Amino acid sequence: MALATTTVAAMALASAAIGAAASVSQGMAAKKQANFSATVAQQQADRERLQAANDSEDYRREQSRVLAARRAAQGASGVDAGSGSSLLTSEDMAGEIELNALRIKNGGEVRATRAEQFASLQRASGKNAQTAGFMRAGSSLLSGAVNAYGE
């Protein structure tokens, strides 16, 4: 009878140890997955910023060409582009162009910030999953010990 009790206790402890190892492993795997997702989100944030900067520069260049063509057309038609309403219109257009370029860049910044927030959330989720795995492991070991020696 004592041998059977010892065998049952050993099996309970072995089961607890296996359960604990599985819990730790699950927590670590969840953390790795969350960290991978966070890395991908951070890379997306970097791409959003770069793309927005490129798009705003492309917009400025294109609009600069439009303004140059407009000034050339005005000059060809005899309008003095350097004074009066023509100058004021050009200045207004230049202001609008810059405002729109900044809006393009700001849109990318907003998307990048969202991606960074998601990355931060993923990292926190991974840490929580790892902590939960350790807690489940501890609980499994304690339950196994109670089952093995408590009876």
Structure write-up:
The protein is mainly alpha-helical and 151 residues long. 93% of the residues lie in helices and 0% in strands. It is built from two helices and no strands. The longest helix has 75 residues, at 2-76. The protein is rod-shaped and about 115 Å long. The two termini are 14 Å apart.
- Major sheet: none
Average pLDDT metric: 86
Q: Which structural category do the helix and sheet elements fall into?
A: mainly alpha
What is the strand tally?
Answer: 0
**In one word, what is the shape?**
rod-shaped
What fraction of the residues are assigned to beta strands by DSSP?
A: under 5%
Series of secondary-structure elements, N-terminal to C-terminal: HH
Outline the low-pLDDT stretches. Answer: none
Q: Work out the radius of gyration.
A: 33 Å
Distance between the termini: 14 Å
Supply the number of helical segments: 2
Percentage of residues in helical conformation: over 70%
Please render the helix and strand layout as text.
Layout: H1 2-76, H2 84-149
Helix pairs in contact: 1-2
Provide a concise account of the structure shown:
By secondary structure, this protein is mostly helical. It is built from 2 helices and no strands. The model has no long low-confidence stretch (mean pLDDT 86).
